[in-house]
User: What shape does this take?
Amino acid sequence: MPHTHHADVLAVATAEPDADEDARPHPELDSVLSGGPFHVALRAAIAARGLPLQRVQHHLSRHGVKVGVTSLSYWQQGARRPQRPESLRAVRALEEILQLPEESLIRLLSEDEDRSGQRRPAARTYRSLVAADGVLDGLLAELRAPADGGLHTLGLHERVRIGGQRELASREAHHIVRAHRDGVDRFLAVYHGDPGCSPALMRVQALENCRTGRVRLDEETGVLVAELLFDTRLRSGETFLFRYGVQDGTAGVSREYARGFALAGGQYALQVRFDGHRLPVRCHRFAQHSAAAPRGGRQDLPVSDLHRSVHLVEPRLRTGIVGIGWEWE
Assistant: This one.
């Protein structure tokens, strides 16, 4: 999901003294290790041992496991969950590094999954969204993208497909744009997957009136940027239509889709289709002025049993974030 908010600093580690020596008993830690959830227990264990995240990362590397400080921060915030084999190896190593009972963190991960039908997993935190914005700025700089892409959105229709495992399986976007300067010949598509996704396993498809150019991604934040080439140079005032898609399906259960807009403009339509056997019990529209702002504009949306889909239409885009959320039984 492309976002438009910015922040100056992302704090991912504390400046606490190292504490590799055996730690004293921590009743609170024992309690969360027993009852979870995983991210609370991990955060308590790291705090109890007094280890900065950079130090935890160093210990993991000595165990032959590579995990970024940002990922560790997300894990203890609940913004993302360890899911890939390398991540699960890291969790087992963390049990040893943090002097925890064997299988204690792995068990909490499993119990969290077992409760997933009744427990809503943590949504992206503000810090994780800010981190994604910082990463996005770097990826755009790699592609030498100008601050102004030279295109105004006249219309955008997105279709999101939720797969049989309730995962975000794919997104397709149909753009209608107008150039406001001469020489525009490309568009940079930004996709921010659900927590736990793997951009390296995603596939970008140029579907109509464009072809795929360079692709940049960041595994830590789940951000992917794809260059879509028009193979023609637009003159100022000319309109252009193009369509592309992203095949995903790399994360867990999905519960919302949202898109951010930096500029006000034309019409936006979002349709979410559910391919699984069961439909969500409730769907709603939401909006935010920015990631730091509270969500508002909530409106219940009917789900079509016939078409197994829900949609919203924004007649005129405003800056900020708009999306659809849904609740599973």
In short: Confidence is low (pLDDT under 50) at residues 1-25, 116-123. The radius of gyration is 21 Å.
